[in-house]
Write a structure and sequence with these properties.
Elements: E1 10-14, H1 18-29, E2 33-37, E3 51-52, H2 54-62, H3 66-72, E4 79-82, E5 88-92, E6 106-107, H4 110-122, E7 127-130, E8 134-140, E9 145-150, E10 156-161, E11 163-166, H5 173-179, E12 186-199, E13 210-213, E14 220-224, E15 230-237, H6 243-257, E16 268-281, E17 286-287, E18 290-292, E19 298-299, H7 306-326, H8 332-363, H9 370-373, H10 375-383, H11 387-394
Parallel strand pairs: 1-2, 1-11, 2-7, 4-13, 11-18
Antiparallel strand pairs: 3-6, 4-5, 8-9, 9-10, 12-15, 12-16, 13-14, 14-15, 16-19, 17-18
Helix pairs in contact: 1-4, 1-7, 2-7, 7-8, 10-11
Amino acid sequence: MANSTWRNIQVIIVGAGPSGLILSLILARASIQVTLLDSEATIDSRPRAAHYAPSAIRVLQQAGVLADVRRDGFMPKDMTWRKIDGTPIVTLTDCSQSRHNPEALTVLPLNLLGKVLLKHAEANSKIELRWNQRVVDIGQDAGRAWVVAKDQAGNLVEILGDYVVGCDGANSQVRKSLFGEKNFPGKTWHAQIVATNVYYPFEKFGYDDINFIIHPTDYYMAARITTDGLWRVSYGEDTSLTLDEVVAHQPAKFARMLPGHPQPTDYELLNVGPYRIHQRCADAMRFGRICLAADAAHLCNPFGGMGLTGGLVDVGGLAECLIGIAEQRADAEEILDVYDRVRREVYHTIIDPISSSNFLRVSATDPETAVEKDEFLAMVKRAGEDKVLRKELDDVSSLVLHYPDGCGIL
């Protein structure tokens, strides 16, 4: 770069999931050299999460991939909360506001997003991808940071850089190396969520693109995630059941919960994945030259997509900070402290309470009185006739953003 104020820095990113890839792309587009490590042989092929709120759309734009995401995905229409028999309780019409919103809510499963991101990363000479590199330790001194990784042959390799960023998920080795194996403050819900991907014609039963079913035991979310008719169904299950018992019980749950009470021959089930849900945030998202982002830094339950959106906004903000350091527009100590403070504050004041309310809304609310007793659902109902209120509702996702002077999106 010709700019005389430019400072060459190298960033090591651990974890080639969506957050790590997006952070790599934003930095590389700003001419920052990136080494991206992952313990696997390639990107994760599981569909997993799929919905990108407007604040996450901005980060996809930063990474230069939004056009491809919009090409491969779609913008959903209505979102409805329902009783277990399918009766609508309240509907948010045109939930993506796609007609007049360039940052409209967009749907693309993470495995398909991963393919888009990987293609862009492989084409960028500023990104060095290293697969089969399991990080076992990290370190730093006054001038550098490093990771120690074990390759596929079992050899230990030390990789040096200026900064290390852990984007290595809920079981982050970077976080564990910083704070210990079990130091991840927060709580685990007394609940087990089962994520399934299934071809089943929900639309024939009047279901919208996104549906939340309110029920004390058979709560679930059903959302269309591809243009060819694949749906994500995530439902609650007895926490005492083992994996084998969850799989064995799935047909009975579908027959009881889903519209039309289908039998296994009525749908094509691609996968069943149970997992426990958490609300947790690390004590710090920055320790010297080492930072944490996305699931490595914080976790929340999946109802409402706050975890995915919050994680992408993390890396968008961190990228702006690192670019500011490289351009010598920001003091490294000060701006990384801002990143740490702001993103943890956003988690505790926005992501945690909103995602917790989303889960309790479907699992611990009486569907018969939901609109009367749930302030959010009452707001959704009123917004149908109040344009000002509707705009306030649509702006909720922007709460996970932060714009400190001179740094960009945090």
